[in-house]
Amino acid sequence: MQNLQIIFTVLAAVCIAALIPLGAIFGWGYAILCAMFAVLFFLLMKLCKQSVDSNASPLSPSLPSDESEKTESEQSSESKNDVK
């Protein structure tokens, strides 16, 4: 799913980059069509990103953020190091 997200991002960027040249060479109708494809690819990219984020494991380990979350053994070893 991550690969699709990257592909859709690149396709949306290519469509945005081609807007002005397409409009100048072939007509502004083609530029509007290209803009609609850019929006479509952008929305598909957001959909893939949302899917990847929702599949992320909520049980991933987290690091302690402050002193209150440390275990007793960590706190006792720190106090021994302070005494030395």
Structure notes:
With 84 residues, the protein is mainly α. The chain has a domain of 51 residues. It is built from three helices and no strands. α1 runs antiparallel to α2. The radius of gyration is 25 Å and the shape is elongated. The model has no long low-confidence stretch (mean pLDDT 81).
Gist of the model:
The chain has 84 residues and is mainly alpha-helical. It is 75% helix and 0% strand.
The topology string of helices and strands comes to: HHH
**What gross morphology would you assign?**
elongated
The whole-number mean of residue pLDDT values reads 81
Sheet-strand content, in percent, reads under 5%
Q: Treating each run of at least 4 consecutive H or I residues as one helix, how many helices?
A: 3
Summarize the SSE layout with pairings.
Layout: H1 2-25, H2 28-54, H3 72-83
Which features would summarize this protein structure in a list?
single chain, 84 residues, mainly alpha
